[in-house]
Amino acid sequence: MTALAAASDAPRGWRRLLRPTLVRRLMLAQVAMLTLLWSIAVGLVLGTSLTEDMGMVDTSHRSVLSVAHNLADRPAALAESLQRMDTALRETMGSDNDPSLSPSLLVWQHGRLVYHSDGVPVDIANRRLGVPEDVTAQGKQWRTRSLESEDGATRVALVLPAGPQMWLTFHSRGYYILPLVISVPFLLLPAWLSIRLALRPWRKVAREIASRDVRELAPLATQTRHDELRPLVDNFNALMQRLRASMEREQSFIADAAHELRTPIAALRVNVEALQGLQAQPEAVPPARQQELMARMVSASARAERLVNQLLHLMRSAAQVSAPRPALLRLDDLVQERLAALSVLARTRGVEVELLSDDPAPVAGDRDSLVSMIDNLIDNATKYAPPGSTVTVGLRRDGAQAELSVADQGPGIPPALRERVFDRFFRDPDQTQTGSGLGLAIVRSAIEAHGGSIVLGETRPGPGLLVTVRLPLAREGIEPGAAASVKTRAALTAD
Question: Where are the beta strands (DSSP E) in 219-377?
Fold first, then answer.
């Protein structure tokens, strides 16, 4: 059983080991940086070595020539001197007496080879004196330069490994990889400890976020001073603040919606209970009373239905993630269409609607949203306008924008309340007309979705309310919409 458990834990351990982590990423970055720096250092050393510049040992080369020429008649002293000079030259270059990495000597007296360094080919010869040349001997690349005495009796050749040969020897003997292999283990532990210590503030913030309750939207208690971590904490706190504000708005919206729905539902229930009580003795109840209760029930249910439709429309507008594909619409045709549909409602209220439009006004947008905007504006104007008055709807082009104005002769809105009336469920306390306070909120939502603006003012001469809506005119390349072919809706969504 233990063996099976160990076998099942093995793949899990490998997956955990291979799982990407920030600590491992930083450690690998340090190892890569160490390798890069070591490679650059090795390249600089080898690039400036004797392979590339024989002039660095030019003085030693000429000294060897002078000693060989002066001791030509003393073979024993010549051999001893050349041996010492050869050893000193290799030690000076730090090559550890390796002919594949160090300079070597070849000395001739009267055409006869009298001295050569260990490991260097003896058949190397220059075609020109004093000029470095690349030659091949014993299957390897060498660079050599020869100097000759004035009488031509003595010649000294300085032999160096060529560039490719030095690189191959340097790598084959582990001079490049061995220091890395030795230093990396000593680097990993300090790097791991330093990274763990450096990430302590990060882990502290992560623990605080993980320990939070789903309903806790307060800012983080951790106050970091680190430039790398501060943007994360600040952005997280800003996100929590937006979420908290959004939840507060939603809770307020739900509470206001419940409050507004309670009134028509309560009225409907009262009338239903009254009608049920009358049915116990129908012969004693006049038909007019029953009709009155039925009319109240229909009015209460219609108000509740209208309110629910407005709530759904408003929530769909707020929850829309991406705007619908804009279509080319004629705003003047759309206004005429909605005025024709709302004319019956205006006549019922004893109000005349007048349209003043001169130029076509093509706009790019969503037809349903624009219809809802127009319906709410005209419905509010005809509802608050006194019987026998006129509601004037104007549409004109102003530069790159279309300007829609709706003016009525009603009580208007005080300047102090003209911004608040766009809030959900807010209504002027002095208004006597019934309503839910959602109409202008829906209007502003539709206008903002189309990149427009709305301003509330006064009609002149007053009293009255002047609503001015400005929408950008359509640009080229927008596909034509089907505004004229869509049937007019019979039911209004305004309140």
Answer: 327-330, 352-357, 362-365
CA 52 to CA 361: how far, in whole Å?
Answer: 80
Rounded to whole angstroms, how far apart are CA atoms 141 and 159? 10
In the chain, the N- to C-terminal Cα span, in Å, equals 73
Alpha-carbon gap, residue 96 to 118, rounded angstroms:
13
- Where does 320-360 have alpha helices with state H? 331-348
Per residue in 4-20, is it b (16+ CB within 10 Å) or e — as a string?
eeeeeeeeeeeeeeeee
Return the amino acid letter for 199.
L
Tell me, what DSSP letter sits at residue 247? H
DSSP letter, residue 52: T
Summarize pLDDT for 209-243 with one digit per residue, the tens: 888 887 788 888 877 777 778 888 888 888 888 88
How many other CB atoms sit within 10 Å of the CB of residue 141? 16
Nearest to 107 by CA among 168, 148, 76: 148
Rounded CA separation 291/188 (Å): 91
Degrees, nearest 5: CA angle 76-77-80: 90
From the number of C-beta atoms within 10 Å of its C-beta (0-12, 13-18, 19+), residue 367 rates as: middle
**What residues contact residue 285 under an 8 Å CB cut-off, 6+ apart?**
278
**Residue listed under structure tokens 């031509």:** 152
Tokens of 306: 């209208």
Q: Report CA dihedral (208, 209, 215, 220) to the nearest 10 degrees.
A: 70
Q: How many other CB atoms are found less than 10 A from the CB of residue 460?
A: 8
Neighbours of 476 (CB within 10 A): 5
Distance CA 314, CA 439 (A): 9
- At what angle are helices 230-279 and 287-319 packed, to 10 degrees? 170
> The pTM is what?
0.45
Cα gap 443→127, rounded to integer Å: 97
Q: How far is CA 203 from the centre of its chain?
A: 23
Average pLDDT per consecutive 10 residues, the chain (495 residues; last block may be shorter): 50 63 75 83 65 59 84 86 82 58 82 84 81 78 83 85 60 68 78 80 83 81 78 86 79 64 71 72 67 75 71 60 66 88 82 85 84 84 86 89 89 80 66 64 82 86 85 68 34 33
368 token code pair: 């349903």
- Residue ranges with strand state E in 420-487: 453-458, 465-472
Q: Residue 437 and residue 459: Cα distance in Å, rounded? A: 22
| Residue among 447, 444, 437, 441 nearest 495 (CA) | 437
Task: Return d(Cα 389, Cα 207) in angstroms, integer.
Answer: 67
Dihedral sign from CA coordinates of 73, 75, 81, 85: positive
Is the Cβ–Cβ distance between 474 and 364 less than 8 Å? Answer: yes
Ramachandran area for residue 124 (φ above 0: left; ψ -120 to 50: alpha; else beta): beta
